[in-house]
Amino acid sequence: MTAHRDPTAPEPTTTHGDRAAGAPTTTVAAPNAAGTRRRVPRTDVLLADPAIARRVADLGRDLVKATVTEMQQRCRDGAIAPESVPAAVLDALPPRAATGRPVVNATGVLLHTNLGRAPLSAAARAAVAASCGTGDLELDLRTGRRGVRGAGTLAALRAAVPVAQAALVVNNNAAAVVLAATALAAGREIVLSRGELVQIGDGFRLPDLLASTGARLHEVGTTNWTSAEDYRAAVGPDAGLIVKLHRSNFTISGFTAEAGIGELAGLGVPVLADLGSGLLVPHPLLPDEPDATTALREGADVVCFSADKLLGGPQAGVLLGNAATLDRLRRHPLYRALRADKMTLAALEATLRGPAPPVAAALDADPADRMRRATALAHLLRASGIEAAAERSDGVVGGGSAPGVRLVSGAVRLPTRYGELLRGGDPAVLGRVADDGCLLDVLAVDPADDRLLADAVLAVARCR
Ligand SMILES: *Cc1c(COP(=O)(O)O)cnc(C)c1O
Fold it and tell me: Whose CA is nearest to atom 14 of ligand 1?
């Protein structure tokens, strides 16, 4: 970039920016600097540039205007040529207003917690957009009076799990556990098995979460063996709640026993089953995952689970159970701090009522189809000179669901260096680096995005 200023001339004085009211501004400028200043594109002209105007719609006028002012100054200083100012403004603006870049999940982990777990269905995305404004969230339009918050979502949950008398939606499953434990057992005992003291992601431990409510944990049984008799012996006058926690991210095998919900239901204390992963009914591919219908049928008073795991919906915690218990939870002051927002409620309702969300579609897809997709992808990439080969891959459900279950999948193996290149691409792609290669597993990739995935690889291969 050439400087437009005569190096022997005094520093040019700028005439833009805040001036002290009434303070006279003297403009002493070298002829060259004055020439540049005349050619600095005007603010109104820059803001009317169609590409810049689009960014105003996206980022707001203040940020764009500040960037325009900054680039005008750099132009005056001779750092950029007048004709380059619009491009410099566009370059300096952030790519989008919101944090969070889209990432193609090619990890082979269907529910990747670091990638935001379940992607929403098109119906759920549309419902979120439609719910953003004002709506009948807590209004009965027939009577004009206050209505039940998220009535449509609660009705959809009860329709999906008819054995549940009532439903409640909170921020996430951890919130559901805290609400139930607080409302039913604060200051009393929670009885739970030593085989169910689970640590979930990022160092959080469910027993610590339970204890944080002010309840005392009464552990029973051993790591591998807990019988109904162990619970019965522990349930005394101080017991407020029995908790059955799903071992959602590990398995215990060998010499093991645990009590079923049916055996705990008759002990005179409410039973909460934390199911973790959100199956509403049994799933043939996931025989060891608990489901809400079965747990309630067996006698759980309340079940809770995450809506963004196997249910394939938004981040939320769902509580289902008998009407009296759910009413206690809804009336508890803590509910007010934990309840779900309108966009979440809309997304959840659309997930339940609409077409199968991507997680369910991926789980139920034919494994041979995944291999075919990987083969087609590898073929396409090889045709562009990229070292790519399809191979069979073992995918997992992930996200604290179905530990030990392998989902037969297909992947494209690329040279290892692609792992980093693809993370920096647009869209970013997260693969799995394994055995001296970068694997792009199609398990969690929407089949409609296969072309997008191929283009992302081709783009980084080109600019390497
Ligand atoms: C995932 C999980 C949780 C936490 O759920 P969030 O929705 O992430 O708060 C709690 N309990 C179990 C058993 C889980 O698997």
Answer: 276
High-pLDDT (> 90) share of the chain, % = 84
Confidence band of 324 (pLDDT split at 50, 70, 90): very high
- Residue bearing the CA closest to ligand 1, atom 2: 276
Residues touching ligand 1 (Cβ under 6 Å) are 172-174, 198, 200, 206, 245-246, 248, 274, 276-277, 306, 317, 400
Ligand 1 centre and the CA of 131: distance in Å?
26
pLDDT, tens digit (0-9, with 9 covering 90-100), for 333-365: 999 999 999 999 999 999 999 999 999 999 999
Ligand 1 midpoint to CA 325 (Å):
21
CATH number of this structure's domain 121-355: 3.40.640.10
User: Helix 85-92 and helix 50-59: axis angle, to 10°?
Assistant: 20
pTM summary value: 0.87
Question: How do residues 171-227 score in pLDDT, each as one tens digit?
Answer: 999 999 999 999 999 999 999 999 999 998 888 999 999 999 999 999 999 999 999
CATH 2.60.40.1120 fits 103-111+361-463, yes or no: no
Cα-to-centroid distance, 399 and ligand 1 (Å): 9
Question: What are the start and end residues of each CATH 3.90.1150.180 domain in the chain?
Answer: 103-111+361-463
**Crossing angle, helix 450-462 and helix 367-382, to 10 degrees?**
30
**Residue limits of CATH 3.40.640.10 in the chain:** 121-355
Summarised one tens digit per residue, pLDDT across range 114-133 is 999 999 999 999 999 999 99
Cα radius of gyration rounded to whole Å, the chain: 29
Q: How far is the CA of 291 from the centre of ligand 1 (A)?
A: 14
